[in-house]
Amino acid sequence: MKKFKNLGPDLFLTICISCIILFIFSIPSFSSSKELITGGKGIWINIWNYPANPDMYCEQLKSKGIDTIYLQISRSNTPAIQHPEKLNRIISSAHQRNMKVIGWTYVFLKNPLADAKKFLQAVFYKTPDGDSLDGMAADIEETTNPYVIETFAKAVRKTVGSKYPLIAITFSPVLKRAQPQFYPWKTIASNFDIIAPMTYWHGLVKYRSEKGAYDYTTQTIAKIKQYTQRDDITIHLIGDGQKTSKQEILGFLKAASDHGINGGVSLYPWYTPQKHQVDILGDFKI
């Protein structure tokens, strides 16, 4: 402030007001109404499996009617943007085809405020062309303490405001470790706008069929509503793409349709999605 010491009060006030105006207009603006950014159909990509050719990858998905990429951009032990150059290419390729790119991060929540800071860096990240992610999600698996989760969510919400849709990636409540005595469903439901359960039935042998996938998905939806005590909760189903068959994917999608899933559907593949998985997801009518 020393360089302003000899300025007159009017000029000093003018400079301060100008700085405030510049700061306000530098903050990204969000829609006046909260959007359902997870609506539609998507494919998930983890931090180790970015496509070598984003243009080809996006074109293949778009041609099948898949409109969203869920792209992991960090973990708590990595920079907020682990692969900025690759991220820039994927955002550009997707947006050229009118596809969304929703980023996600695996949060340890050992330091919820540090995780919130990284999350916000991703929210406000800009490519060299001035483009950005269409949304951000937090994968909550490590620390499930309600106070810690709420601390993280409130720190993010304080900056992005009430209209920015926050997404929580959760376990399926079919799992024992995701029962309400272990997993804070009410806290998550009150601090996030969209719950995206990892509906991974294939790891349990008895669910490896069309009926099995249908039943697992049905139970996932019902238990989330039961544990959150909210029938109107917005759910985005992340389906199992880990070597799953055509029949299993059909069972998963049929359950989503029969139970009126309201937040879109997607598949988390093993490395890259198999052709039959993309075809079936593409044919599915939301």
Keywords:
286 residues, alpha/beta, TIM Barrel, eight-stranded parallel barrel, 9 helices, disordered N terminus
Largest sheet: 8 strands, parallel, barrel
Number of helices: 9
The fraction of residues in strands falls at 15-25%
Instruction: Report the helical percentage.
Output: 40-55%
Short structural description:
The protein is of the alpha/beta class.
What topology emerges from the helices and strands here?
Blueprint lengths: L8 H18 L14 E5 L8 H10 L4 E8 L8 H13 L3 E8 L4 H12 L11 E6 L5 H15 L6 E5 L13 H7 L2 E6 L10 H19 L5 E2 L1 E5 L4 H13 L6 E5 L5 H9 L3
Parallel strand pairs: 1-2, 1-9, 2-3, 3-4, 4-5, 5-6, 6-7, 6-8, 8-9
Account of the protein in words:
The chain is of the alpha/beta class and 286 residues long. The protein has one domain: TIM Barrel. Helix content is 41%, strand content 17%. The protein contains nine helices and nine strands. It has helices at residues 9-26, 54-63, 84-96, 112-123, 146-160, 185-191, 210-228, 246-258, 275-283; strands at 41-45, 68-75, 100-107, 135-140, 167-171, 194-199, 234-235, 237-241, 265-269. An eight-stranded parallel beta barrel has the order 1-2-3-4-5-6-8-9, surrounded by five helices. α8 links the parallel β8 (237-241) and β9 (265-269). The longest helix is centred in the C-terminal third of the chain and has 19 residues, at 210-228. It starts with 8 loop residues before the first helix and ends with a helix. Mean pLDDT is 91; it is low at 1-5 and 11-32.
